[in-house]
């Protein structure tokens, strides 16, 4: 499988300025190409390149390969927009519904590189093409990413991004996948807010500490925004991605634990298919921040890619009534869950923590959907 690694570039000021100017010229060229493509309704990469190649080189002083990559970026953006609109309008009433809109690119938007414009000397140096020729830049790679990249094949193009005055390379690395084993059981996982994850074996990952951190950050942001001084704005700027990094770290830890547990018990991982959950449910105004703050899709994606590497099968099941159905007798009723934390069946009086009951129901549905589970090898 392919994973993306984020590598920090350690640039001197001179090299930083060269790279930033190259990025700005590249995105200016992309905007020029996009305007031309929109006016001419020409979104084919090959045809578009023939029409704008020499003009772009003259106007923006890009190299031959940079020009080709800029055309490719614009064409791919319009193709992606077309695919998105086709999905949004399955049966368009008129052509107006699928008309394209002009795509524009940020001055410091991501810049594409490939093997002709970017090369490496081991894991220490990157040779990057700029408007003023190539520069050799030291790379800062974490021990984890060094282990991932060592001896691996770096595939396709890389993206150069600029965040908070720092340049990073997003490199795609190919990792071997383990052959999925034949599971002998299923591990159901219920995702939530009070408990971020609860499994069918009775283990829960509480969200209390996580929610406390989020509430504290929200109060601090409100206080700093109300203060409005320069120092307050600087602190806000420094902290703006702190909560997102915290969220990613927690999701990585939980997903790693779940995959290891499933592999240890030779089970498949059963998750709820929560696609579009935020559009399907409504909550009170006071609960909106909690409802929309945590990245459930991110946690699911982390579980899926870690499971793919480990060879753990993953199954998605319908989440409807998983917290209202009794795992003993199958009775479904809203009254079965009178409180958020506790489940008590009105038919057979089976009682247990509500999130773990939901995980048991997810496990049962996975066992039904995968008929070969339970056959030991």
UniProtKB/TrEMBL annotation:
Recorded GO molecular functions are: DNA binding
Q: Which Pfam families match?
A: Cas12f1-like_TNB
**Keyword Protein biosynthesis belongs to the record:** no
Any idea where the Cas12f1-like TNB domain is? 296-362
InterPro entries per UniProt: Cas12f1-like_TNB (IPR010095), RNA-guided_DNA_endo/Transpos (IPR051399), Transposase_put_N (IPR010094)
* Keywords carried by this UniProt record: DNA-binding
Q: What is this protein called?
A: Transposase
